[in-house]
Design brief:
A six-stranded mixed beta sheet has the order 7-4-10-9-11-12, with helices on both faces. Strands 1-3-2 form a three-stranded antiparallel beta sheet. It has a three-stranded antiparallel beta sheet with strand order 6-5-8, with no helix packed on it. Strand 2 and strand 3 form a beta hairpin. It contains 13 helices and twelve strands. Helix 1 packs antiparallel against helix 4. The longest helix is centred in the C-terminal third of the chain and has 15 residues. It folds into two domains: 87 residues, Arc Repressor Mutant, subunit A; 180 residues, Dna Topoisomerase Vi A Subunit, Chain: A, domain 2, CATH 3.40.1360.
């Protein structure tokens, strides 16, 4: 992220509004519009006002997609003539300009209050927003076979998913689980149905087909909204050409995914999972 964009974000956090033309990096701007971090409203035929939609969404985006845990300290480092590792370290213990530390386990939660067994003890997954249960990789997890497991990208998306229960299947109880190697291993040993909730773009489909579908086989599916064609019209064209260069030969493992791939290529648009969690869900529902 450019220094100028980072400073603009601080101004937006303070309640200011900016013009679209102010942003020298349209890639950064379009990315944040795509993820539901910012919103823009027309002022004139060729001018748009940009405001912050949600500080929570901004923090999520910065941590997970820019590796920025502290925006103000990121600006301090970017303003240094020659920022070094020691410069970053000297900012202090609370200044985390680094990626999230890896962990051996996964976060789980459920909007339906599902009861699971962990190492033989019953635990009801009914934790409030901003909370989830972290389960170490060596723990034994038992989830009723009728419960649908929904894989989300990270802990932050578990939080947002709890608020938006209505966009997921209503006929079954669901459990949100953070994706990663621990979930892949768990899915290989249980009979539960699995729904992959990821970015609706070519890389997102590739991740599902290469990392999760081989494990879940006929039990797995990729989240495709019923009105995906309409939704893609609101999507972002950012990164499409880059994705196409790398995943242009991608084929779907079933007719539904093959149709989705064709639609993405035809529309030249993508939808990040954050679109559903940070945007106006009422428009979607």
């Amino acid at each position: 992220m450019t220094l100028k964009t980072a400073k603009y974000l601080v101004r937006l956090c303070n309640g200011e509004s900016l013009r679209r033309a102010d942003f020298s990096s349209k890639l950064d701007l379009d990315d944040m519009l795509d993820f539901g971090v910012l919103q823009q409203e027309p002022l004139t035929k060729c001018s748009f006002e940009v405001t912050l939609r949600s500080i929570e969404a901004l923090n999520q985006y910065l941590v997970n997609y820019q590796g920025i845990n502290d925006l103000e300290n990121y600006i301090k480092v970017m303003e240094m003539d020659v920022p070094t590792r020691s410069n970053i370290a000297n900012l202090g213990e609370n200044d985390k300009l680094r990626s999230i530390n890896p962990k051996s386990g996964l976060h789980v939660n459920s909007p339906d209050g599902v009861t699971v067994r962990i190492d033989g003890k019953e635990v009801t997954l009914s934790f409030p927003y901003n909370c989830a249960l972290f389960i170490g990789k060596n723990s034994k997890i038992e989830i009723d076979a009728n419960v649908l497991i929904i894989g989300v990208e990270n802990f932050e998306n578990i939080k947002f998913s709890l608020r938006e229960r209505s966009i997921f299947p209503e006929e079954k109880q669901i459990v949100f689980i953070e994706r990663g190697p621990v979930l892949q291993q768990y899915l290989s040993n249980v009979p539960n149905q699995y729904l992959h909730f990821g970015d609706i773009d070519l890389p997102g489909i590739s991740i599902y087909q290469t990392e999760y579908a081989p494990v879940t086989k006929e039990r797995g599916s990729f989240f495709i909204p019923i009105d995906i064609e309409t939704l893609l019209k609101r999507g972002s064209s950012t990164l499409h050409n880059k994705h196409l260069a790398k995943y242009g030969s991608l084929k779907g493992i079933n007719p539904d995914i093959e149709s989705l791939i064709k639609l993405i290529k035809d529309k030249k648009k993508r939808l990040a999972q954050e679109y559903f969690l940070n945007s106006a869900i009422s428009d979607y529902a």
